[in-house]
Amino acid sequence: MAVNGGSGRDVPGTWSASLEWLVRRLAPDFPDLAFLEVKFRIKSWHRLDMCAEDTLAAVNLAVRAGARAALLLGFSMGGAVAIKAAGHPSVTTVLGLAPWIPDRLSLVPLRGRRLVVLHGTLDRSLPGIPGVSPSSSRHGFERARGEGVDGTYTLVEGGIHPVAVRTPWGGAIPMPRARRWAQLVAAELERFRASDA
After folding, report:
1. Residue ranges per domain, the chain?
2. Each residue of 96-129: pLDDT tens digit?
3. Taking 70 as the threshold, does the pLDDT of residue 45 lie above it?
4. H-type helices in the chain, by residue range?
5. ∠ at Cα 169 (47, 9), nearest 5°?
6. In the CATH hierarchy, which top-level class contains the domain 2-196?
7. How far apart are CA 73 and CA 121, in angstroms?
């Protein structure tokens, strides 16, 4: 289940170019997995509780449709949202791509789940361009490990914040290292598929 990033403003939810590109690239290789997008009513990091409610509603919908287990693939702010929603009984894994894991975020929902963090080494906030530093997600990951959460942390050498960006005509084009991101996500999807078999 793909959980999108957000904004500092209250804006309607949209599909992330990074997640769109990854899902389009990976879904054909995993025909036995269902890929679902969580579209927030409002995608704002000031409304994490609302975004988590939207994510839980999507997980419940997937369970009613027959899903036995769920992996939450959270990009940027979507990492924090996925962690908040991880307490759902069907969630086994949170896979954070350049995830925002603020200190105020409770990591209790991760207990008994797996946390996988992938982060670009060149990610950072720049003027007018949001980002999350790898040291920030590393700190959040270490907090989770300190609470007994199983997982891995992997740096994507040369990776920046987005995996892909939106073109003016609406498509998603990959950024440098996008293939490496896709390889790492695919490896975790393989692990998830094997554990759910």
Report:
1. 2-196
2. 999 999 999 999 999 999 999 999 999 998 776 6
3. no
4. 17-26, 48-64, 77-85, 134-146, 178-196
5. 15
6. alpha beta
7. 19
